[in-house]
Protein: MFS transporter
Amino acid sequence: MNPAMQNRFRLLVGWITLFIIGTDLFVVSPLLPLIAKNYHVTSAEAGWMVTAFSVAYVVGAPWLGSLSDKIGRRRLIVLGLFIFASANLLTAYSMHFYLLVASRLLVGLAAAAITPSIYAVTGDVAPDDRRGSWLAIVGSGLLMALWAGAPIGSLAGEVYGWTWVFIGLAVLSLLMMFLNQKVWPNVIVSGASLQASEHAKFFELIKAISPTIFWGTAVYGFYTYLGSGLRVENHFTGQMVALALTCYGIGAVIGSLNGGKLADRFGAKKVGTFSLVLLGALLIVIGVALHTQWLLLLCLALFAFLGYGFFPAHQMRLVQEHPHQRGAFMAWNNSGLYIGITLGSSIGSGIMSSLGFEWLPFVCCVSAFIGSLISYRTGSNKMETAAHSSTEERPISR
Structure:
């Protein structure tokens, strides 16, 4: 296989792998009523499945990211996919509800091993001038799972039964286990860099991922309640809500892909910081335009386009600024994303209950502006060279 074809195949394998992981994450929510009925529990109790996944991911990702630096990205991806498949089969065939929740803990840990390692190994093998684009392409698999994987899985659950959704995910992840084994080098961080990685200061890690936390809080604090807010408080029809979410989804996918390209051209720090500033500004505009339907649709598409450009740009920045600790920093950054989602949904719930949906964009914009300030004042614009990176990491042949 020539190098160009090999690169395309790597991107495709990474994209499909993250699409499967994302589908597993997002499909649980629409399947909760079916699962709750099956196990004779309430919908709130069935929601423990989502909580178990999220807690396992947030806690496990930093440790597993450091482990990928030690044993190799490819090895951890393959092991994670095997556990992911096994845990999904356990989800499908659990005889008791608590065993079902335990299976989602295992799925969360497996996802925490796979997702950051895919990002890290993509950063390892990508050309210097295409790194942001590669990270954006691979990462778009998670976004596509939200708009395609979850609805398809939900429909399959309604027609064939929810257990077949998780059986299907298990079979697909086993296939991807063999493909990931084939396409990636097993990059291991060398001794000196590994020792530096293990002694990375906790404050340095938190400072590096803080923009992601504030970004996740701003974006998901607003998005989590967008559908219900538009329908209940703004009296949008079901068709208009669906159109609004479609505009948002299209903007998110295009924004994510272009965020990587812009980071390659103008620098990751500049693009990430500017994206957060524009995100905050668009939230203010959305707050003003809430009751003007067509203007709101345009603003939602722009909000998603500008907002989702941040994530691949910031990932590229972490890859550049911490070339010897990519596994650890990418894993911590993914944990930061889930922390931001949790904070955003919690804050959004409080705002919805006390002030109402119309105040939510104005509160979330504060988080975006704080994130932009932190992004601007930390790190550097320095581009790491391939030569510097290659002296500290050694790919192990299959």
